[in-house]
Each structure stands twice: as C-alpha cells, then as structure tokens.
Design brief:
With 358 residues, the chain is of the alpha/beta class. Helices cover 41% and strands 17% of the residues. The strands form 3 sheets. Strands 2-8-7-6-5-3-4 form a 7-stranded mixed β-sheet, sandwiched between helices. Helix 13 packs across helix 14. The chain binds pyridoxal-5'-phosphate. One of its GO terms (molecular function) is L-allo-threonine aldolase activity. It is an enzyme of class 4 (lyase). Its cofactor is pyridoxal 5'-phosphate. One of its GO terms (biological process) is L-threonine catabolic process.
Length: 358
C-alpha cells in the first residue's frame, strides 16, 4: 500500500505539476547568458510588470537574489546594511553579504509582527561625518512576508515609511519578497503597491508559487544591468533557463490564484491545533501560510515526540526547537490533508499525555 504523505516541512517541497512538466518539455529556449532565451525574457517581462518595476532578472535562488541586490546597492566594501535580527538574509544565508559582499550588517530587533521599529531604524543610520570610524550605511532591508515571525505581512504603509526614511538619508531599500505574493493576497493589496517604495525586490518562484527552481529580482533598468554582471560573477549565469522559466510561468497562472485557499487551510489547521490540550497556536497571528505550534510547559509533549509520531503517519514537519514545530501549507496540501493531520496529531497528543491508558 502506498503511504499517504502530507508534507508540511515547507512550501519549498512542492513537486512540479503535470502542466509545469509539459511546459518545461516544450519550452522555447536559447542561451540566456548571451541574452537570447525567449522564455526567460517572457517571465522577466511579466514579473517586472506585476511588480511595477522597469526590469527583472531570473536568478537560481532567493539567497543569490538577495546577495546580488545587497551587493549592487552596497558596491563599496565596508558599506553597512540595516536589517532585522531574525530576517532570512541575516540568519540563513551563510553571512554571504559579509563573506562575499564585504557588507557589514547592522541588526535591529524584529518585532513579533516582522517589522522593525521606525525610530530604531533611523537611529541606526550612521552619521556620515564619522566615516573615519564607522561603516557607511547604504541600504535598509525588509522581509515580506516575514518568515521567522510566522509569515506575517508588512503593510504598504509601513514599507512606504521605511522608504521615506531611506530616501531622507540617501539610502536604498531592498525587500526580500520571497513570499510577497502571499502578503499581497492576505492584505488584498496589489503586489506592485506593496513594493512601491522599494528600489529592489527578490521574489521566490519556488515557495508559495510552487515552481521547482528559481527567483526573480526586480528594479530599475540600470540596477538590473549591474545585477546581471554580478549574477555571472557569482556563477548564477545559466544557459537554457527557459526550461525553468516555463514552469514558473505556469506557476504564476496556476498557483497564484490558490494562495488564498492556502491561507484558509492554514487558519483551519491553526484553529484545530489550538483546541488540543497542551498545544498553543497564536491563531490571530497566522496571516499567510505558516504555523508555529508551541508545546505548553508541563504538557509532556516535545517537538521531537510529535514529529516522530506524525512521521509514522506520513506527515512531515520540522521542529524549530524542542517545544516548537513549524508547519507550512502549499498548493499540494488539501483540506482533507489538514483534517487528516489534525486527527493524527490529536491521537499523538493523547498517547503522549496519557500513556497509561494505552
Ligand atoms: C524569506 C526568505 N528569503 C529568502 C529565502 C532563500 O531562498 P532560497 O532557498 O531559494 O535560496 C528563503 C528560503 O526559505 C526565505 O524564506
């Protein structure tokens, strides 16, 4: 018997759909490093239009997209970037902006909702008169949605205000928009409006959108020209990428309209989990497709015990720490998968908490 698999580890685990595989097989391609791949051009043009920017560039990953953007904005070694202390660029990208880019990070505390305090941002900007001693602030980075806050959305107004601070001080604003479409759907604000104040945005195609590979960065024409050079330097110039871009074009068509349903399923799962004894979920904070499920002190539950039990039922999750599990909904999770997960978890919670009765 084939085991039912409910893969909640991340929204990066999706498999290409039949339509994506067909589009990949029949994609019109050419050498993109030479600038001739027609499918890549089509994807880049569509993404630039959707994001309200002049130009776009396909890159192999969100990590490379962020690195390229930071390095274009901070092209003088010893530049400083202001960013959140729990943001992806700072925590999960191998410190690439420092080790490869020569860029110094100045972290500000991320609030529970993924924002950084505006007064704290402005106070962190270095006084140019002190440049004999200090690095020079050149960039502010935001992340929308903010993954380590559980997929919280930054509003257009908040992003505008950060953009105003950046402008006032002659800085640039980059948005890590790995899941910007989730934010757009959750806030019901067009994606181009959400990033209007940004000089650059990196958007992942391989997260909520469900494409197998790639990200796109957007910005002004001159920004993208510099980004293209850096992409080559970093080894991210690839040849017949139309094969990948074709899948991404299908993802935009097929999966973008499904994000709202992903968010509804996330709420359904969060509400069900929150009813279980010993488990706590901040349902009000579940704005998009992520859930942080906490185990209450003294409940006998641990993340590892629950992960093991769920795995036996084909449900895959990743513990964040000993008392927290992260679950992420994507287009390949059905409402029935959510109910199945709730019922398996209920069973696991009972077995762990009341072992003598079994
Ligand atoms: C918010 C955010 N930014 C950037 C990335 C990096 O994307 P990639 O895994 O494609 O390098 C991720 C990946 O999970 C992410 O969650």
């Amino acid at each position: 018997m084939v085991m039912r698999i409910v893969d909640l580890r991340s929204d990066t685990v999706t498999r290409p759909t039949d339509a994506m595989r067909e589009a990949m097989a029949s994609a019109e391609v050419d050498d993109d490093v030479l600038g001739y791949d027609p499918t890549a051009r089509r994807l880049e043009e569509e993404m630039a239009k959707m994001m309200g920017k002049e130009a776009a560039l396909f890159v192999p990953s969100g990590t490379m997209g962020n690195l390229i953007c930071v390095m274009v904005h901070c092209d003088v070694r010893g530049s400083e970037v202001i960013l959140g202390d729990t943001c992806h660029i700072h925590v999960y990208e191998n410190g690439g902006i420092s080790t490869i880019g020569g860029v110094h990070p100045k972290t500000i505390r991320n609030e529970e909702d993924g924002t950084m305090d505006l007064v704290a941002i402005e106070a962190a900007i270095r006084d140019p008169k002190g440049s004999t001693f200090y690095p020079s602030t050149r960039l502010i980075c935001l992340e929308n949605t903010h993954a380590n806050s559980g997929g919280r959305c930054l509003s257009a107004e908040y992003t505008d205000r950060v953009g105003e601070i950046a402008k006032r001080h002659g800085l640039k604003l980059h948005v890590d928009g790995a899941r910007i479409f989730n934010a757009s759907i959750a806030l019901d604000v067009p994606v181009h409006r959400l990033v209007k104040a940004a000089d650059s945005v990196s958007v992942c195609l391989s997260k909520g959108l469900g494409a197998p590979i790639g990200s796109v960065i957007v910005g002004s024409q001159s920004f993208i020209e510099k980004a293209k050079t850096l992409r080559k330097t970093l080894g991210g110039g690839m040849r017949q990428i139309g094969v990948l871009c074709a899948a991404a074009l299908v993802a935009l068509q097929e999966n973008l309209p499904k994000l709202q349903s992903d968010h509804k399923k996330t709420k359904l799962l969060a509400e069900g989990l929150n009813k279980m004894k010993g488990i706590r979920v901040n349902v009000a904070a579940m704005e998009t497709n992520m859930i942080f499920m906490d185990m209450e002190d003294g409940s006998r539950l641990t993340a590892e015990k629950l992960r093991k039990s769920l795995t036996e039922h084909g449900i895959l999750v990743i513990p964040e720490n000993s008392s927290r599990i992260r679950m992420v909904i994507h287009h390949q999770i059905t409402t029935s998968d959510v109910h199945y997960t709730l019922s398996c978890l209920q069973q696991a919670v009972q077995t762990i908490q009341e072992p003598c009765q079994n």
